[in-house]
Amino acid sequence: MTPLDPSALDLSESAAQEPAGDVALGPGAVLLGGFALASDRALLAALADVLRTSPFRRMLTPGGSAMSVAMTNCGEAGWVTDRRGYRYDAIDPASRRPWPAMPPAFAGLATRAAERAGFPAFIPDACLINRYAPGARLSLHQDKDEQDFGAPIVSVSLGLPAAFLWGGLLRSDRTRRVCLVHGDVVAWGGPARMAFHGVDTLQGGRHPLTGAIRYNLTFRRALWPLQGAAMAPSSIINKIG
Ligand SMILES: O=C(O)CCC(=O)C(=O)O
Ligand SMILES: [Mn+2]
Question: Are the CB atoms for 185 and 155 separated by under 8 Å?
């Protein structure tokens, strides 16, 4: 079975018959099929700009092995890993400069996708950009290095298809395989915010826009709300207090 095979979509029978559109993965989680298609070229052009300042690199896990997925970031905070652990940092450790600003095309798409998924007023302050070459994979994990679990995650797929593993709140929960193709967006939050997920080993192939690569843009609210979206002074005091 190739990742493009529709039967790889382990979704409910009725949902699997829909070629695109919105498919609920469970409470608080939805696949927005093709949501980013109309913006694909704008997103890839903006990605090329980001890479001029902060190119892809294979970061080290705390255990000292290089991740198979190459990563970079844009936005106020970037997700990094090294022997000191997983965390967000405002400075790119490779360039020793702030991460590139979030391109408007990125932020706009993320906000619109979140709204469609039922999470209005999402303003991401961090975008982790993943580059998968064939053979790369991301093991099952939770996104839990953020300070604000109230905000959703918005995850955009570009290029080669991949098998996304969607689990539950426990690592031992059953995972389903969801085929993500170019332009698909998955958004999860609320009761699904801490769901385990991962990406199975990328298979070979060629995409007209990205060649033998899959890109993923993961938008998050990493920092306290007061560092990003405008908030009333009273809210800021409440947050600090
Ligand atoms: O590549 C994907 O689809 C998921 C990426 C992801 O889960 C992450 O970067 O935390
Ligand atoms: Mn993740």
Answer: yes
Q: Are 162 and 137 in contact (CB under 8 A)?
A: no
Which residue's alpha carbon is at the smallest distance from atom 1 of ligand 1?
216
121 burial via Cβ count (<10 Å: 0-12, 13-18, 19+): exposed
How far is Cα 236 from Cα 238, in angstroms, rounded to an integer?
5
- Any idea which fold 22-231 has? Jelly Rolls (2.60.120)
Ligand 1 centroid from CA 206, angstroms:
20
User: What whole-number distance in Å separates Cα of residue 111 and Cα of residue 127?
Assistant: 12
- Break the chain into its structural domains and give their ranges: 22-231
Quick one: which H or E segment has residue 108?
helix 104-116
Total Cβ atoms within 10 A of residue 101: 14
d(CA 38, CA 100): 24
| Residue 95 three-state SS | coil
Q: Is 216 in the pocket of ligand 1 (CB under 6 A)?
A: yes
Place of tokens 């999470």: 119
Does 54 sit in the ligand 1 pocket, CB within 6 Å?
Answer: no
Neighbours of ion ligand 2 (CB under 5 A): 143
Q: Is 175 in the pocket of ligand 1 (CB under 6 A)?
A: no
pTM for this entry: 0.87
Each residue's pLDDT tens digit, 31-67 = 999 999 999 999 999 999 999 999 999 999 999 999 9
DSSP state of 101: P
Residue nearest to atom 7 of ligand 1 (CA): 198
